[in-house]
Structures are given as structure tokens and as C-alpha cells.
Design goal:
alpha/beta; Rossmann fold; 2 domains; eight-stranded mixed sheet; 15 strands; 35% helix; 17% strand; binds adenosine monophosphate
């Protein structure tokens, strides 16, 4: 099966081939033909399966005919987070380079200015997060009755983030005669009800979870003493051939504290979580993408769906509370056929969480002991890193930024000896990442195409 078999236009085939893809993924092969036939779709698939192109490609061909009217986007894509919205926009740019289509990105925390003007001229594709879109709609700045195509992406994540009422309301603002595509990694009853209410005779397509299906991620549970997690992490970062690593924590405070601690120990690390504003988050991701830092400490929501190629390792510094998050987290490595390693730190309190994970992935994960701080851990050989965007050679980044810092007397840093640091009281609102609660919605509009 090739992309040419799916009924896409020659311009699109050219853009796809220039993006380096020749064979459609299962979700693309199954979804693209019915979308082109204007059918509603329920796609049970998660990030990493190629699902973004499964709706972006046919949308471009469908939208190639017709023109947008002022204040009336012709299609709407709803994404739960800003990062995912930005990634979809990137996909439109990549695949739409031979089409004259306009898109606007409606997310919080970005300068409004000209972007609002761009929207007022009319856009073919509006990519938005639900809260921001509702806000603007209520201020009368946008009309959705010209929107004949709707994509609800990551519906289960929308549910987790409390966006379902917004989505229901948005659906009622769109014309009844429209095409709707809904994607979700899982189908809890609320999402099923949403689909029953707002989709018409949808075709269901289900593809395997990439993490469970893929054998290219080596997974290990690492037994650690809860007071010695940082020590164990540092020992493993030093012992492994770590090229670039995403470290997940369950709480924003842990993300912040761990990042600070790693930096104090001379590692090149950055952090992303829901309390970091958009421009800082983008800058942080860019530093990670380009290799100025090779360690990214992250919370679940902030890192969900991130598509950064060449991530060699994922560390779950905290075992995730929800088994689905485990699958999402480890899916940041082993992307696009590369090999990856996923380590999950396990303390005495994590037995139930691990049990749930193993049930979900239908697999028992091998357990290893945390290495002693000085002893090298078992090495897992990595494929050389492939450059993701710019065609440059593989990069291997020195994980240490300042060797002199390593020589600091350990006694000066209590946690280096495994002693627990004085605990700060945890603020009541500093729970798991809740996504974005940023300022008023703003526009980022990008014209693309020839
Ligand atoms: P997604 O599931 O949309 O997040 O895509 C996951 C990754 O797969 C992204 O890096 C895409 O660029 C890549 N991808 C999309 N389509 C294909 C394809 N047909 N062949 C290989 N990689 C692809």
C-alpha cells in the first residue's frame, strides 16, 4: 500500500514524499479514503500512530476547493493542549506547502495583534484549544457556522481536562450538516456518548497502541528507595548512553525541584509543566529539540503528544498514577522506528500502579535494581540518533555541563548523599498538571502553501 493508493491529490503526494514518508501507517491507510468520501470517523488511536496526518492530509484536499469568508473558518480542529495544537499546525505547513490555504492557531498566551486581523479575513483551518475558542466565541469575535468540518482530537484527554462541556457547546455552534472526525486513545462512556450525539453514522477505526505493539522500546522497572531516587537517576544518567531523555514526574513541584537538582549537579536539563508560560515552554522545547539541553523534566499534560525525534530514554521518576499515562510517557521514545529505553522508578508504594500498568499493556516488565551511585548501570545500546528536522548529523550531547561542579564536595549537597532534603510544604493547588489556565485567548495565524 502506498499513499498514491489512498486517493490523495498529486500535490499532496509530493509533499508527503518530500516529508520522507512512503508507506501510510495503519490509521492513515484506513482513515484517509473514508474521510475523502466525506464520512464521519471515530479513530481509536493515539499519538505515535501517524493519526495527525490521517486527518490533515484529506482535510487539505477537501479544503483545496472553496474559499473562507470573514470571521468564518471553514474547518475547526480542537486540541487539548497548546503543544498539540502547534504540532497540528506544523503538519498543515509541512503537507500543505503546495496548496493555498490559510490557517489560524487559537491558543492562550501568544500575542494577539495581527493574528486577530488574519482571522477576520477568514481562514480555511482554525486549530484551537476549547477554552480559548469558547472565550472568543462569547466575545463575538468568531462565527462557526461556516465550519463544515470538525476534528476533535485526543477526546479522552479533553475529558481528563474537563473540556467536554465546552466541546458539546462548540458542536452546537457548528452547522448540523458537517463532517466530524473524532480521535481518542480510549473510548470511555462519556466519549462514546459524545460521538453518538454529534457524529452521524461514523466509521470506527481502531489501531493498536503503539507502545504495546512496538518491541523497539526496552522497558524496565527500577527498584529504588523513595529517598534515593535522585541519586539513582544521576547514576543511571551517567552510566547509560543517554542522548536525550525525557524524565516524567507526577507533580509540578517535583518537576521543578528535580530540574534544579539536576542543574546543580551539572546536567544540562530543562523543564516543562503547566505553570510555565507559553513562550517559555516553546523556548524550553526548542532548547531540547536543538540539543542545548538533553534532559527535559516534564509533567504529563505538558509532554503529552510531544513529537521529538531522537529521544533515547524515558525515565518515569515517579510511577504514573494512571496506566494510560505510562503508555503515553514511554511513547516519547522509540518513535519512527528508532530504539528506545523506558525506565520506571518503583518504590514500595507503587505496587498497585505497576500492577495496573502491566494489566493494561498485557506484559510483565522486567525489574532491575537501582545502580549504586558509583557503579555503572547495565548499558542498553542505542541506535545512533537521527536528526529530526534539519538534516544535520546525529548528535551526542555531553550530559555534563561543568565538570568542576561535579568535583564539589558531596557533603555540600545533602541530597547527593541520599539524605532527604528539608521538605517544603506542598501548596494545595500544586497537584498534577491541569493543563493551561493562561491569559485570554490569542491568535497565531500562519498562511501556508504556494
Ligand atoms: P502522530 O501519531 O501524528 O503524532 O505521528 C507520529 C510520528 O509519525 C510523527 O513523527 C510523524 O511525522 C510520523 N509519521 C506520520 N506518518 C508517517 C508515515 N506514513 N510513515 C512514517 N512516519 C510517519
Amino acid at each position: 500500500m502506498t499513499f498514491a493508493d489512498l486517493g490523495l491529490s498529486d500535490e499532496l503526494l509530493k509533499a508527503v514524499s518530500e516529508a520522507g514518508y512512503d508507506t501510510p501507517t495503519p490509521i492513515q491507510a484506513q482513515a484517509i479514503p473514508p474521510v475523502l468520501m466525506m464520512k464521519d470517523i471515530i479513530g481509536i488511536a493515539q499519538t505515535g500512530t501517524g493519526k495527525t496526518a490521517s486527518f490533515v492530509l484529506p482535510m487539505i484536499d477537501i479544503l483545496a476547493h472553496g474559499r473562507a469568508r470573514a470571521l468564518m473558518p471553514r474547518s475547526l480542529i480542537l486540541e487539548p493542549t497548546r503543544e498539540l495544537a502547534a504540532q497540528v499546525a506544523e503538519n498543515f505547513e509541512k503537507y500543505g506547502k503546495y496548496h493555498k490555504l490559510n490557517m489560524a492557531l487559537l491558543i492562550g498566551g501568544v500575542q494577539m495583534g495581527d493574528q486577530l486581523k488574519a482571522l477576520e479575513k477568514g481562514v480555511d483551518v482554525l486549530i484551537a484549544t476549547p477554552g480559548r475558542l469558547m472565550d472568543l466565541f462569547q466575545r463575538g469575535k468568531i462565527l462557526l457556522n461556516g465550519c463544515s468540518m470538525l476534528v476533535i482530537d485526543e477526546a479522552d484527554r479533553m475529558l481528563d481536562m474537563g473540556f467536554i462541556p465546552d466541546i458539546e457547546e462548540i458542536c452546537t455552534k457548528l452547522p448540523a450538516q458537517r463532517q466530524t472526525l473524532l480521535f481518542s486513545a480510549t473510548m470511555p462512556p462519556v466519549i462514546k456518548k459524545l460521538a453518538d450525539r454529534f457524529l452521524s453514522s461514523p466509521k470506527s477505526i481502531e489501531v493498536a497502541r503503539p507502545a504495546t505493539a512496538s518491541t523497539n522500546i526496552t522497558q524496565r522497572l527500577v527498584k529504588v528507595d523513595s529517598r534515593k531516587k535522585r541519586e539513582a537517576l544521576r547514576a543511571m544518567l551517567e552510566a547509560e548512553e543517554v542522548q536525550s531523555v525525557v524524565i516524567f514526574c507526577n507533580r509540578k513541584t517535583t518537576v521543578r525541584d528535580l530540574n534544579k537538582s539536576l542543574q546543580r549537579h551539572g546536567f544540562k536539563s530543562g523543564e516543562i509543566h503547566g505553570d510555565i508560560d507559553q513562550s517559555a515552554r516553546i523556548a524550553e522545547l526548542e532548547r531540547f529539540r536543538t540539543g542545548s539541553v538533553n534532559i527535559l523534566v516534564a509533567s504529563d499534560v505538558a509532554a503529552r503528544g510531544l513529537d521529538i525525534k531522537g529521544v533515547s530514554h524515558v525515565f518515569n521518576f515517579d510511577a504514573p498514577w494512571h496506566p494510560d499515562d505510562y503508555v503515553h510517557r514511554i511513547g516519547r521514545t522509540g518513535r519512527a522506528g528508532a530504539k528506545g529505553v523506558a525506565y520506571t522508578f518503583v518504590t514500595a508504594d507503587d505496587a498497585e500502579a505497576i500492577d495496573n500498568i502491566q494489566k493494561l499493556i498485557k506484559q510483565k516488565i522486567e525489574t532491575i535494581d537501582a545502580p549504586a551511585a558509583a557503579a555503572p548501570a547495565e548499558k542498553v545500546k542505542q541506535e545512533p540518533r537521527r536528526s529530526d528536522r534539519d538534516g544535520k548529523d546525529d548528535r551526542k550531547v555531553d550530559t555534563r555541563r561543568d565538570d568542576r561542579r561535579r568535583e564539589e564536595p558531596r557533603a555540600a549537597r545533602p541530597e547527593a548523599n541520599g539524605a532527604s532534603r528539608p521538605r517544603r510544604p506542598v501548596p494545595v493547588d500544586d497537584g498534577p498538571d491541569e493543563g493551561w489556565n493562561g491569559p485570554v485567548p490569542e491568535f497565531l495565524s500562519v498562511g501556508f502553501g504556494a
